[in-house]
Amino acid sequence: MNEVELPFFVYGTLRPGEHNHDLFLRGRTESEEPGRMRGVVLYDGPGYPYAVEEPGGVVCGEVVTASPEAYGELLAALDRLEEYVPGDPRNLYERVARDVTRADGTVVRAWVYVAAPGVAARLRGRGRPIEGGEWRSPQSS
């Protein structure tokens, strides 16, 4: 199956200044710009956040556009990082296409990794939401 080459919306360890940014994105992107995604709430995870689809929430992050020549490699690397396998019920994250608003107000469709249904249900029940939808790791704060 051929994937649609969408930008990515990152909100956790892939953001600039976080530990996975340099490991996965450096040298593979054409642009990185601030963005916001509505309809999701961030929950604290074990050293990284989970975005859970919930009405009314907003998450802050970056819209990352891959360099065309690096797209396939980057998509595969991010799927491995997030341990995402299409259709696998054991996934912690699902990769979904959602609308993201850039800082200039334009809306773009982007891939985003959101909590898989089982994880999302557990987080809604007993997780800790991150106020304001802005996550930073302790070392970057």
TrEMBL record:
Coiled coil region boundaries: none
Domain of life (superkingdom): Bacteria
Pfam family name, one: GGACT
Alphabetical list of CDD domains matching this protein: GGCT_like (cd06661)
SUPFAM superfamilies: Gamma-glutamyl cyclotransferase-like
InterPro entries in UniProt: AIG2-like_dom (IPR009288), GGCT-like (IPR013024), GGCT-like_sf (IPR036568)
Residue ranges annotated for the Gamma-glutamylcyclotransferase AIG2-like domain, each copy included: 8-136
Protein name: Gamma-glutamylcyclotransferase
Organism: Streptomyces albiflavescens
